[in-house]
Amino acid sequence: MELSRAVQFAQSRRQGVLITIRRDGRPQASNIIFLMEPDGSTRISVTEDRAKTRNLRRDQRAELYVPGDSFWEYVVFDGTAQLSPPAAEPTDQVVDELVDLYRQIRGEDHPDWDDYRRAMVAERRVVLSFRPASAYGQLRG
User: Fold this and answer.
1) What is the pLDDT along the chain (141 residues), one digit of tens a residue?
2) Are 15 and 30 in contact (CB under 8 A)?
3) Please, are residues 77 and 66 in contact by the beta-carbon 8 Å criterion?
4) Do 42 and 16 touch, CB atoms closer than 8 A?
């Protein structure tokens, strides 16, 4: 499947499954919300203490499964991920990026940005940047 076609499909979606590699080599799947840019770069908000984050700090390889409108329509991206450091201060660069990610995914402002910024630090949020190298799946048309 052409990567550009898969990216075009995924750009209109927000929900997917991130698949990472456990220490023993078995896959680990996590439901996530993502934002994919026209060039395929994808951002996801995760927390530092989750299995997917620990897996990616050890092994950057990942897959992103994006479902379609029916069971038979889907795309899977194969690529690598990079992780920011955990949010440390309400005004740090990581929290600024999380604010931008929230706005782009939700299409609106948060009702209380100060509270949101504090929560990002308290939850030890991280920005996961995923870069797909290839794609496979099944699309209509």
Assistant:
1) 999 999 999 999 999 999 999 999 999 999 999 999 999 999 999 999 999 999 999 999 999 999 999 999 999 999 999 999 999 999 999 999 999 999 999 999 999 999 999 999 999 999 999 999 999 999 987
2) no
3) yes
4) no
Tokens at residue 44, please?
Answer: 């996801």
Strand, helix or coil for residue 115: helix
Tell me which CATH code domain 3-138 carries: 2.30.110.10
DSSP secondary structure letters along 39-77: TS-EEEEEETTSHHHHHHHH--EEEEEEE-SSTT-EEEE
Q: CA torsion, points 117, 119, 124, 125, in degrees to nearest 10?
A: -60
Q: Which residues, including other chains, have CB under 8 Å from residue 117's CB and lie 6 or more apart?
A: 90, 91, 95, 99
Amino acid symbol at 141 = G
Domain boundaries, the chain: 3-138
